[in-house]
Specification:
- This is Cytochrome oxidase Cu insertion factor (SCO1/SenC/PrrC family).
- Keywords: Membrane, Transmembrane, Transmembrane helix.
- It comes from Piscinibacter koreensis.
- InterPro entries: Thioredoxin-like_sf.
- This protein has helices spanning 2-7, 17-68, 121-136, 158-165, 177-180, 215-228; strands at residues 78-85, 109-115, 144-150, 171-174, 196-199, 204-208.
- It is of the alpha/beta class.
- The chain has 2 domains: 16-74; 76-228, Glutaredoxin (3-Layer(aba) Sandwich).
- The protein has a 6-stranded mixed beta sheet, covered by helices on one side.
- α3 (121-136) packs across α6.
- The chain is globular.
């Protein structure tokens, strides 16, 4: 009879199923959830490392230009910090009115001139400086594109078009001023037309040259930039 008493529901030594039941129901999902959280965190870390490795050459080149080499800080143009990325939705059109994706401007260093189609004397000088800078780049000339952004709807003069299309032609596109203002900007108190702008192959506007810039001093800026990016930038789009 003693065995019957000990195993009965009211016996002194009856096991308590509460904790065991609680353990069997909740512990396994908790372990699985922890393992899943660890896998997710590990995956995110791996992705971050891959992105960092891919971006390392670009980061290193800019560190070399802006930080490591003191002489490189004696730039002539004004550095744009942080650089301003090319808006993906920037409205661009060719002279026939066809839409041109903004991304087509990437993968080359750009020398950008902005003006109305009439192209006054300052605009003509900028277009001339633009052409001279590319020609003076020597073996790196193929890494540079000339871009003329026309900010109104008028027709350019035929002689101006002939000049920018001579030799290696410039890319001529239309873009409204209000749209361009989300990417490029003049110095305080000035207009977009008064500067030459330098854009890197990732589409980042990163330097603004002074008004009526000295081509030889702009050339030094451009040479430093080309040298700093030589490890990751290659000729051609």
């Amino acid at each position: 009879m003693s065995g019957s008493n000990s195993s009965g529901p009211g016996g002194a030594h009856a096991p308590d199923p509460g904790p065991l039941l609680s353990f069997s129901v909740h512990a396994a999902p908790s372990v699985e959830a922890d393992a899943m959280a660890q896998r997710t965190a590990g995956g995110r870390l791996q992705m971050a490392l891959v992105l960092l490795i891919c971006a390392a050459p670009v980061i290193a080149s800019y560190l070399a230009y802006f930080v490591i080499r003191p002489d490189a800080r004696t730039n002539y143009g004004e550095l744009i910090v942080p650089p301003r990325a090319l808006p993906a939705d920037l409205v661009l059109r060719d002279l026939d009115g066809r839409a041109v994706p903004a991304t087509t401007l990437k993968d080359q260093w750009l020398l950008v001139v902005v003006s109305d189609a009439a192209c006054d004397a300052r605009c003509e000088r900028h277009l001339w400086v633009q052409r001279q800078l590319r020609e003076m780049a020597g073996p790196d000339a193929g890494r540079i594109d000339k871009v003329w952004l026309i900010a109104d709807a008028a027709a350019p003069r035929p002689e101006t078009l002939a000049a920018v299309r001579a030799g290696v032609p410039a890319t001529v596109l239309r873009a409204p001023r209000e749209a361009l203002a989300r990417w490029l900007a003049p110095a305080a108190g000035h207009s977009l037309d008064e500067h030459l702008y330098i854009v890197d192959p990732m589409g980042n506007w990163m330097m603004r040259e002074p008004i009526d810039a000295d081509p030889n001093k702009v050339k030094r800026d451009l040479q430093r930039l080309l040298r700093a990016s030589s490890s990751w930038d290659r000729e051609g789009r």
